[in-house]
Write a structure and sequence with these properties.
The complex is a heterodimer of chains A (372) and B (310). Chain A is an all-alpha fold and 372 residues long. Chain A is built from 14 helices and no strands. Classes of the chains: A mainly alpha (372), B mainly alpha (310).
């Protein structure tokens, strides 16, 4: 081992931060070549995402669903699965919440709100849980099945909001009937952002505690790191795989439910803005650590929030932020190769550079390299 | 047009599905053949979706600038090969996972194509000409169904060639050894890394061509909703085809038919459930995956080094 254990934490911070900085440099070069002033681009990125209380609110409003869709990728990843279909769970969660809100029980708001979020959670859990089940029972690759299910989920949403569930009053944007002001979620205490932010942070903290400090989290790690060993230890790997997928799907579904109950007030195609896909980036940047998902979601939310400002001020295509995120994603993954290779001063006795450090989180690389 | 559609009656639907199947299946065919080569080498490239979109944008922009869709095709293939090289190079680093890199390239390619392609959304670029096999008929629907795009026969020829080359050329045999066992290939003195890089670049080039087909033939314009997962479905299609080029052809036609069903029904005036019919290819892909995978054994015909099927 070339990196002593005591330096592992440093490495885990330095490498991702370095990768993000490299991505920003590359992006500066890219926008420079495309004929835009790089310094001004970064100034606007900062201003648009984090420069004022208005932009902070905008950022946090976008971070709220990203925390949850990030968890939708991060939790299954701890069991060694690559789920990229959070978008499908999110839109179906939104649809389920809207259905409960519109046609559900009348009466006091709180129980209906809870029922809406529960329905959203269940819808997401079932949708991604299906990927886990297909993986376990049929050996179907979960990455592909989850993305196919995302397309199918989006088609279902479009079908229902333009067909059977369409509110005749929604002319420009086909939607379900509005859930009504009384059912809309309030604000996160202390912030000018809807309750979804608080819910996302609490769920992420909960997921972190479970994965880090409980036997369940350890079992998940064993299943992800070495399925054979997990089976020998008597773990029911199938149940863990399906459960991890369902938990991830539940988070994404909840994100959709919150978007309906706190932002849009009805289910419609506004739900399909790519939070599910951006969640993949969030999870990989956070190296599937639920606690790290929170700051990364805020960073990505800020970059997305600043996209509009780049478009208005510099007349840049709105896809500029996608380019930056794509570069960051590629470099973050490429930087995986650096773990255990950075030479710290005390690590002079390094002998075998290529052998990995002790694996604390089951990265995808170790998980999928395992022969079953 | 309407009169002939009426005289043909409901026959217009199967006719439109056949014509549509050929149109819709062409990108599937090209991308799946490309992925077939890549996967034969033991790597999987999930980034083909992003490469396809980049190829579509590059081809359209080139055709617009030069006036020649054929130059557009070449540029799309080059751009695709460059992205394939990026994937291959990054995967060659230690501890870097090919599936994850593929997802990243999917997002990067799509974002880059949307950024660079912004100016090409409005203008109309010259499209690829069709080969009119239906000139003998007076009926416009028959003519429309038999107007074959030039990339389709090229794809068929390529499928046959690959089928032969995988078995009968030194390159094909080496590629299969590399894909089945990197260690064995190394022991035989084959340059494993170089084979994989070349295979991934070829896969990228063919995906770029698949994208060029979308922007230069059908639908024949560039916009951000151009691709709807064809690149990814092609990956699933290769599994269904058991890594056999000829089976890729049949699978692509099947997918093309499923993809053509929605528009054909819509053209015939059946519009309810439009979104559900459009989701038919995804459902079909999933059903096929479920039917062709098994938890008990690794897939028949699967390259041994492939992380996808482990």
């Amino acid at each position: 081992m070339s990196t002593p254990r005591s330096f592992e934490w440093l490495e885990r911070i330095l490498i991702p931060v370095g990768a993000v900085l490299a991505a920003m440099l590359l992006f500066a070069l890219f926008v420079g070549l495309a004929g835009y002033p790089p310094l001004e681009v970064f100034e606007l990125l900062y201003k648009g995402g984090f420069g004022s209380s208005f932009s902070w609110n905008n950022t946090l409003q976008r971070a709220a669903p990203l925390i949850l869709t990030g968890l939708a990728v991060a939790i299954p990843a701890r069991a060694g699965l690559v789920i990229i279909g959070g978008e499908g769970a999110l839109v179906l969660g939104g649809l389920a919440a809207a259905i409960v809100g519109v046609w559900g029980l009348g009466g006091p708001a709180l129980p209906v709100q809870l029922a809406m979020l529960l329905a959203a959670t269940l819808a997401g859990a079932l949708w991604i849980g299906l990927c886990g089940w297909l993986r376990h029972a049929r050996g179907v690759n979960e990455t592909i099945s989850s993305l196919l299910l995302a397309y199918i989920g989006i088609a279902l949403l479009n079908h229902f909001v333009e067909g059977p569930l369409k509110d005749p009053a929604s002319l420009n944007k086909p939607s379900t009937a509005p859930i009504g002001d009384t059912l809309m979620l309030g604000m996160t205490p202390g912030f000018d952002v809807h309750l979804g932010l608080g819910i996302g942070v609490v769920v992420a903290l909960f997921a972190w505690v479970v994965t880090r400090f409980t036997t369940a989290g350890f079992a998940l790690q064993v299943v992800g790191g070495n399925p054979r060993a997990a089976q020998l230890a008597g773990l029911r790997t199938g149940a863990w795989l399906i459960g991890a997928c369902a938990a991830g799907g539940a988070a994404a579904g909840l994100a959709g439910g919150i978007e309906v109950a706190a932002v849009h007030g009805a289910a419609n195609s506004l739900l399909i803005v790519g939070y599910g896909y951006a969640g993949i980036l969030v999870a990989f940047m956070a190296r599937h650590n639920p606690l790290a998902v929170i700051p990364v979601a805020i960073l990505i939310g800020g970059i997305n929030a600043a996209g509009g400002m780049l478009q208005r001020r510099l007349d840049m295509p709105d896809a500029a932020v996608l380019v930056l995120q794509g570069m960051a994603f590629v470099l973050i993954l490429a930087s995986e190769t650096l773990y255990g290779r950075i030479k710290f001063k005390r690590a002079a006795k390094a002998t075998a550079p290529a052998v990995t450090t002790t694996v604390t989180a089951p990265t995808i690389a170790t998980a999928s390299g395992e022969k079953v | 047009m309407n009169e002939t559609a009426q005289t043909l009656g409901l026959w217009s639907i199967p006719l439109a599905v056949i014509g549509g199947a050929i149109r819709v299946s062409t990108p599937f065919l090209l991308v799946s053949l490309g992925e077939c080569i890549t996967e034969k080498s033991g790597r999987i490239n999930l980034g083909l979706e992003g490469i396809l979109v980049m190829g579509a944008m590059a081809a359209y922009g080139t055709s617009l600038a030069t006036g020649s869709p054929w130059i557009g095709l070449w540029v799309a293939a080059l751009v695709g090969a460059a992205f394939g090289l990026l994937h291959a190079a990054l995967c060659s680093l230690k501890k870097v996972n090919d599936i994850a890199i593929g997802i990243a390239i999917m997002m990067f390619g799509t974002g880059l194509a949307f950024f660079l392609g912004k100016p090409y959304i409005q203008p109309k670029a010259p499209n690829l000409p069709a080969i009119e096999l239906g000139a003998w008929s007076d009926s416009p629907p028959v003519q429309a169904a038999l107007a074959i795009n030039p990339l389709f026969p090229a794809g068929i020829a390529l499928a046959i060639f690959l089928h032969w080359a995988f078995r009968n050329t030194a390159w094909g045999l080496k590629l299969r050894v590399v894909g089945d066992s990197g260690d064995a290939a190394l022991a035989l003195g084959i340059r494993v890394l170089r084979m994989r890089v070349v295979a991934t670049m070829l896969g990228g080039a063919l995906s770029g061509l698949g994208g060029a087909f979308l922007s230069l033939y059908y639908p024949g314009s560039w916009n951000e909703a151009l691709s709807s997962g064809q690149g990814l479905m092609a990956v699933a299609l290769v599994i269904f085809a058991r890594w056999e080029p000829i089976r890729c052809l049949w699978a692509a036609l099947l997918f093309g038919g499923a993809g053509a069903l929605g528009p054909a029904l819509q053209a015939a005036g059946i519009s309810s459930g439009y979104h559900l019919f459009n989701a038919a290819p995804y459902v079909l892909t999933l059903v096929i995956l479920i039917a062709s995978c098994s938890p008990k054994r690794s897939l028949q015909g699967a390259p041994g080094e492939l992380s996808l099927t482990r």
